[in-house]
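Technical note accompanying the year-one report. For the benefit of new consortium partners, we illustrate the data format agreed upon in the data management plan: each record pairs a sequence with a structure-token string. No post-processing was applied to the example shown here.
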Amino acid sequence: MFVRFLLAVMLGFCAAAATAAGLKVGVSADYPPMAYKQDGRIVGIEADNAKAVSAIIGQDMTLVDMPFEQLIPALKAGDIDVIMSGMSVTAQRSEEVLFTDSYMDVGQMAIMSTEKIAHFSQPWALLREGVRIGVEPGTTGAEYVAAQLRNAQVTFFKDSAAAFAGLRNDEIDLYIHDAPTSWQLATSTENGDLISLYKPLTHEKLAWAVRKDDERLASRLNDALQTLKRNGTLSYIFNRWVPVTVEVR
């Protein structure tokens, strides 16, 4: 009996130590206003989300910057514990990770030069044959174009900055990316020559992700998320970084 009691105490101690240990949070810091670097620090909606969640669950959350396509492999390998990087929930990703409850509804939007707004003001204009569209590989924007805009000429860009350069150099007519990229245009003085239609082409949900077998951590994150929604912190964070109306559920 004493041995069992001692074993139970040791297991409880180990569990407590694991809970107290910090969490490594994977983020791709090239996606304003969700996450990006400013003066050498990672800032944005997800950075603030991590700080708020950390305070609720009582664990430090260290942001680990890496390319977006490496986030899920790093999570599965145990190099990080959570993904908080404006990731859209998809069926394919759900086979590899366990998503938390959604914290934001978004959609893909089309960005273009202000000189071309008249050509693409109507939704059907995207369906024209030969329209040159830029996307980022591995994103839901790329999936949308492949499935819905099959007559388009597609060019891949490593990030939004490269795609914006492609628009300015007339290499592409449109750049399709998540709504947060369009929101950023509303406050970016250096991108005044670009504009978004602000008409969602898709309807998606953003959520955080953990390993498939880490239901305990997912539950704790969901509890923290509900607290952030109830006390208004989630809305406060969004309003701080996003200058347009966003539907938060």
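Partners are asked to follow this layout when depositing records. DSSP finds nine helices and 15 strands in the chain.
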